[in-house]
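Hi all, posting the design record for the shared folder.

TITLE: backbone redesign
STEP: 1 of 1
STRUCTURE INPUT:
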């Protein structure tokens, strides 16, 4: 029996409480089992869930196995998990208990985002003398993985093995995906190896999940090995698999490998926006701005329009070459491209314009659009967590002007803090290491003294020391 921590009620008591809340009013029922099954199916497909349940409970043909199958199939498809549980055969119902009926009820729970209830139903199968099959576990493992409960998914896999059930292709896909979502790249590769050694026919999706898990750990060489293994088994990698591998190279800042994999894609597959964005990102991280610009041009010539991500990457590439005029032109071209600029895009723009006359006006435009909502936690604290170095300098200029007016109006001493963070929430290529030095140089150029601060993620200023006359 699979136990779940935090479950205060068994599936039996849950089923009992739901049965107690059923509609008791009488309805005109269909006399025969097959007719009732078809009637319930039609009602459920038209989303008349309550009428379907009333028809089911008011009928004299409730003991017909086909009626339960029809009702549960439809309810599972509609994710009506409560009604599916209510329709399960109970002690008072002589209808045959089947594995399929429980699987359908669990499927309804999974589709209704009630994976805990599905687990409880799986654990309850033994109490009603119904044996789970491989499909039973295939129903409950995926929602556990999607909810980042990879440990429960692995426990279910082990429980399935103890019952001598043989996993199928869907089982392997589900458990590898669960490990991927749980950042368990080593386990993903272990299960992938088990699948390759078994008699189960391999699936491209399993390799894509394993490669994605490698990407999260920057294990780009292992991702390439997975791609090579996939090709050697006469399986054709699809765009999803290639994108996952290129994304792994991007995370590991291996731009040459990313370009090589992209070039190896067959013409029949077709590259998409994600393919180009991952390759561009890898090039930008390596300051290969010309290659990034070339990739963007190739993408648009192939008929794929630039989106927010690829346009931001293009701006960063142009900024690396200090082509600020091209960056501004691209910003003004966003309405024609049907792209709405966000804070990240303005970060790219302000990084190349903060020393130019256009910089302050562009920063005020971003503020008017509320693109930096967390900038002012309170008036005396400026939070720069989501700002680039250029945007941060412009923000500090604006903020000091506001604080100076506040101080001169009251002459009350107070201290101000600039929250830069310690760089833990930013990656190196996002210029986290450059933020604090850039601000310190800015203050040094203006002869603005900083007061000692024990917090390494903050810079502190004294208003009285700064603006006393």
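Okay, here is what came back for every position:
SEQUENCE:
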């Amino acid at each position: 029996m699979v136990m779940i921590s935090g479950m205060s009620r068994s599936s039996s008591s849950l089923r009992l409480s739901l049965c107690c809340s059923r509609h008791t009013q009488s309805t005109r029922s269909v006399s025969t089992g097959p007719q009732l099954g078809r009637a319930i199916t039609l009602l459920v497909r038209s989303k008349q869930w309550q009428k379907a349940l009333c028809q089911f409970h008011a009928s004299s043909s409730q003991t017909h196995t086909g009626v339960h199958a029809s009702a549960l199939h439809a309810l599972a498809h509609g994710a009506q998990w409560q009604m599916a549980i209510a329709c399960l055969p109970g002690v008072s119902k002589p209808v045959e208990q089947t594995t399929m009926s429980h699987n359908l009820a669990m499927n309804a729970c999974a589709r209704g985002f009630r994976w805990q209830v599905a687990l409880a139903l799986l654990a309850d199968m033994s109490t009603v003398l119904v044996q789970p099959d491989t499909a039973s576990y295939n129903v409950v493992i995926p929602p556990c993985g999607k909810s980042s409960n990879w440990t429960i998914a692995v426990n279910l896999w082990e429980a399935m093995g103890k019952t001598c059930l043989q996993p199928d292709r869907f089982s392997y896909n589900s458990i590898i995906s669960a490990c991927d979502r749980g950042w368990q790249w080593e386990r993903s590769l272990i299960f992938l190896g088990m699948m390759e050694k078994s008699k189960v026919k391999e699936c491209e999706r399993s390799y894509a999940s394993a490669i994605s898990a490698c990407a999260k750990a920057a294990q780009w060489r292992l991702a390439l090995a997975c791609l090579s293994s996939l090709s050697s088994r006469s399986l054709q990698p699809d765009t999803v698999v290639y994108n996952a591998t290129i994304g792994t190279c991007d995370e590991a800042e291996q731009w040459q490998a990313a370009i090589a994999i992209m070039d190896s894609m067959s013409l029949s597959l077709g590259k998409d926006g994600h393919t180009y964005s991952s390759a561009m990102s890898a090039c930008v991280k390596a300051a290969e701005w010309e290659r990034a610009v070339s990739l963007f041009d190739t993408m648009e010539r192939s008929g794929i329009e630039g989106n927010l991500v690829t346009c931001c990457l293009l701006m960063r590439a142009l900024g690396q070459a200090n082509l600020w005029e091209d960056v501004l032109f691209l910003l003004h071209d966003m309405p024609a491209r049907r792209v709405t600029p966000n804070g990240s895009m303005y970060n790219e723009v302000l990084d190349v314009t903060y020393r130019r006359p256009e910089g302050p006006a562009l920063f005020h435009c971003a503020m008017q659009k509320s693109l930096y909502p967390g900038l002012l936690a309170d008036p005396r604290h400026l939070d720069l967590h989501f700002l680039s170095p250029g945007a941060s300098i412009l923000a500090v200029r604006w903020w000091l002007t506001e604080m100076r007016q506040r101080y001169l109006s009251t002459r009350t001493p107070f201290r101000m803090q600039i929250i830069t963070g310690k760089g833990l929430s930013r990656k190196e290529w996002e210029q986290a290491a450059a933020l604090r030095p850039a601000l310190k140089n800015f203050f040094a150029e203006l002869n603005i003294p900083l007061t000692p601060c024990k917090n390494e993620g903050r810079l502190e200023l004294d208003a009285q020391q700064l603006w006393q006359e």
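COMMENT: The first strand starts at residue 376 and ends at 378.
Let me know if anyone wants the other runs.
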